[in-house]
């Protein structure tokens, strides 16, 4: 599915040139400078960037999901008009149940339509939803290590089955972990998202220096397991946060739309922050950094959890992209999910 905005050049555009094996950027006036050159690989078509100050709405507010667990992430099935939420049991103390997750399928208003249990998969930091050949495939972190860490160290692709239960060693889970030389050998913790506007897999991972990076692949390649360096469309560093700020405002989710990746950060019952990253950028460059949002501020125990791209088809057939971001809330032990979005561009 393609977006009506995908071929429109942004107001501030970058051109990349290969010079002696490195990457040099020519930046339009007014954009942020690069902090360091870094190693990058980029081949992403230009697109518009979401305006964090723009209009939006809250289509899902305080909806209970299948389990009374913490909502961690969500993503849209833009073909069948459904939402898939991932939940994690933050209160679990049983090592055998570390990494257990529930997936809840809902309508666009957050009303439950089905569910699936995933045992020892990970934390549920991010999910990708792939409608394909009449079925829906989910991409999640997978294979929590032994001893368990509560985070998966691979990416698994599997078919959603209402009422199904998957163990981490199930043969029905396809290993779709990128095979990049710079991934950390023990704690890469890869996390998948899907850009439905361009049909691309987006993976956030930890490199050998324990810094966070992001990489893109065509879904046709990712689906077939072609996830090595030669198939990358883009790979670049994500911004490194000051340790004190990062502890108070932990990373909570990401997504991508066209040329830009988006991050959400923030703690419990506090301000949350949205950031935009140019996938054609290099080093620590940031298109827009830590925009504060008060969305959902009245939610009890509000904590940001997850981002996704929602494509809405208007009556005239035009596709209207939305940058959706979620919040978990806790009202006297009742855990619920809410979703907000932005839908305007620079």
What is this structure's SSE topology?
Elements: E1 15-19, E2 22-26, E3 41-42, E4 56-63, E5 70-77, E6 82-88, E7 101-106, E8 112-119, E9 127-132, E10 135-144, E11 152-159, E12 165-167, E13 174-175, E14 191-195, E15 200-206, E16 212-218, H1 219-223, E17 234-237, H2 243-248, E18 251-257, E19 260-266, E20 272-278, E21 288-293, E22 303-313, E23 319-331, E24 334-342
What's the gyration radius in Å? 19 Å
Fraction of residues in β-strands: over 45%
First-to-last CA distance? 22 Å
Count every beta strand, where a strand is a DSSP E run of 2 or more residues. 24
Percent of residues in helices comes to under 10%
Quickly count the domains.
1
Number of helices: 2
The unreliable regions are: 1-38
Instruction: Give the overall form.
Output: globular
What would you say the CATH architecture is?
5 Propeller
**What's the helix-strand series?**
EEEEEEEEEEEEEEEEHEHEEEEEEE
Main sheet properties: 5 strands, antiparallel
Q: Please give the CATH class.
A: Mainly Beta
The averaged pLDDT comes out at 87
The structure class reads mainly beta
What would the CATH topology be?
Tachylectin-2, Chain A
Q: Going across the major beta sheet, what is the strand order?
A: 3-17-16-15-14
Could you walk me through the main structural features you see in this protein, from its secondary elements to its overall organization?
The chain is mainly beta and 346 residues long. It has helices spanning 219-223, 243-248, and strands at 15-19, 22-26, 41-42, 56-63, 70-77, 82-88, 101-106, 112-119, 127-132, 135-144, 152-159, 165-167, 174-175, 191-195, 200-206, 212-218, 234-237, 251-257, 260-266, 272-278, 288-293, 303-313, 319-331, 334-342. The protein has a single domain, classed as Tachylectin-2, Chain A, CATH 2.115.10. It has a five-stranded antiparallel sheet with strand order 3-17-16-15-14. Strands 5-6-7-8-12 form a five-stranded mixed sheet, with no helix packed on it.
